[in-house]
Amino acid sequence: MKCIVGLGNPGKKFEMTRHNVGFLAIDRLAEKHGISLNEAKFNALMGTGRINGERVVLVKPLTYMNLSGEAVRPILDYYKIEIDDLLVIYDDLDMVPGKLRFRPKGSAGGHNGIKSLIQHLGTAEFKRLKLGIGRPPHPIKVVDWVLMNYRKEDLLELNETLDNAVTAATDFVDTDWLALMNRYN
């Protein structure tokens, strides 16, 4: 079984913010594969189903970004999912908007959701799909930028990014990791 987690913040207030691009990707992935995100367990909204014939659990932690690991660890334990079968989708300030990149491991790079996952999983060696949101234009602060709603003129690019993320996450389920990184990176 695979576990695909999208990072974000719960609630209408954060729904269309840059920090919620992981949640938006999970919503679109669930819709594409007919998986209902209707279970509220382990401080997460989740749903199970099949992608490319493989059982998957899709997860949106409801702990707020900075405590994401508190939701993900119990889910992995409950379903007996190995770290190698986990994919985390989240926003990356250091990549241009629209770009996506798979990474096999790494530091948190200042991302508090990833810091929480590393703390609760006890390792930084979990697979990631990073979605570029770019750095804020001067004088906007980073914290304001990530919690700012997407502007109307950014929605076309966001939709394309989410479509690409869904294709990439779908391929993660049954594609060799090195082939996956070569294809998308």
From TrEMBL:
The record marks N9 as: Discriminates between blocked and unblocked aminoacyl-tRNA. It comes from the Bacteria. GO terms for molecular function: peptidyl-tRNA hydrolase activity. The active site is at H19 (proton acceptor). It catalyses: an N-acyl-L-alpha-aminoacyl-tRNA + H2O = an N-acyl-L-amino acid + a tRNA + H(+). Keywords: Cytoplasm, Hydrolase, RNA-binding, tRNA-binding. TRNA binds at F14, Y64, N66, N112. Its EC number is 3.1.1.29. The record marks D91 as: Stabilizes the basic form of H active site to accept a proton. SUPFAM superfamilies: Peptidyl-tRNA hydrolase-like (SSF53178). The keyword Cytoplasm applies. It is found in: Cytoplasm. Hydrolyzes ribosome-free peptidyl-tRNAs (with 1 or more amino acids incorporated), which drop off the ribosome during protein synthesis, or as a result of ribosome stalling. HAMAP family: Pept_tRNA_hydro_bact. Belongs to the PTH family. NCBIfam families: pth. Monomer. This is Peptidyl-tRNA hydrolase. It comes from Exiguobacterium aestuarii.
